[in-house]
Design goal:
eight-stranded parallel beta barrel, TIM Barrel, globular, alpha/beta, 11 helices
Length: about 270
């Protein structure tokens, strides 16, 4: 059954999401500004199944699993499908997957393979109607639309192909249009801050969240628990992080405890 673990994302209790980036050789990796790092610390940060199980045990509300090579290298979803099957077999929390998706049939395959939601990034910038077709076919709760952006010196612009291609799109207008097309939530990622652990881009997050009626997931830059609190205060309905959990002693359960001390309601 499609989406058996998932409930529609909403703006109630804040979700704490752990992000896993699949590199080459079926190992997890970490990037900085969407670029691969060759050092041993970031080049290999663990086994996907073991790490996903650790995050679930630490009370992560959701696992976001991204095949970061699939789109740029034209790999399609074959590898992502296999990982969706493997991860869904050991997880009870919702699983969101992305990378290499190009069609409604790809989405159908991934949902039937155990994913609860899919992330549409580069595919949506090439064919915005895919978001509408997918939301009509599977429900908007299954569709997360990615808005990956950075400052080009004069304007904020949306980038695709893992940050290599300037689409010319304005992230604010693009996010609104994705909602109009049926996206269930927005995954908002500052490319410039991704992996840097210096905090989310709160100004852009605040502006996008203010204009949306669907949830906005803050991603890119978390380095301490306070960063997640600031993101929620700026309007995020969920906070996604990777480096925070890889390179500090923080865990989803510690983050939730800290957020509750700041009087933020989190899922339990």
């Amino acid at each position: 059954m499609i989406g058996t673990r998932e409930q529609s994302p909403g703006k109630g209790n804040i979700r704490v999401i752990s992000v896993l980036l699949l590199g080459r050789d079926d190992r997890l990796t970490k990037t900085i500004k969407f670029r691969l790092q060759q050092d041993s610390l970031r080049g290999d940060v663990g086994d996907p199944v073991k790490q996903a199980m650790v995050y679930e045990a630490q009370l992560a509300d959701e696992i976001l699993f991204l095949d970061i090579h699939a789109t740029q290298e034209g790999l399609g979803i074959a590898r992502l499908k296999e990982w969706a099957l493997r991860l869904s077999n050991v997880l009870s929390v919702p699983l969101t997957v992305g990378g290499g998706i190009g069609s409604v049939e790809d989405i159908r395959t991934l949902l039937r393979s155990g994913a609860d939601r899919v992330v549409l990034g580069s595919a949506a910038t090439r064919n915005i109607t895919l978001v509408r077709e997918a939301s009509e076919a599977f429900g908007s709760q299954c569709i997360t639309a990615a808005v990956d952006y950075k400052w080009d010196g004069r304007h904020y612009r949306v980038y695709s192909e893992r940050g290599f291609k300037d689409t010319g799109l304005d992230p604010f207008g693009y996010a609104r249009y994705l909602e109009h097309m049926g996206a269930g939530e927005i995954l908002l990622t500052s490319i410039s801050r991704e992996g840097g652990m210096n905090g989310y881009d709160l100004d852009v997050l605040r502006k996008v969240s203010r204009e949306m009626s669907i949830p906005v997931v803050a991603h890119g830059g978390a380095g301490k628990a306070e960063d997640l609190v600031r993101a929620v205060e700026a309007g995020a309905s969920a906070v996604a992080a990777s480096s925070l959990y890889c390179f500090t002693d923080m865990s989803p359960i510690k983050v939730k405890a800290y957020m509750e001390r700041q009087e933020i309601s989190v899922r339990r």
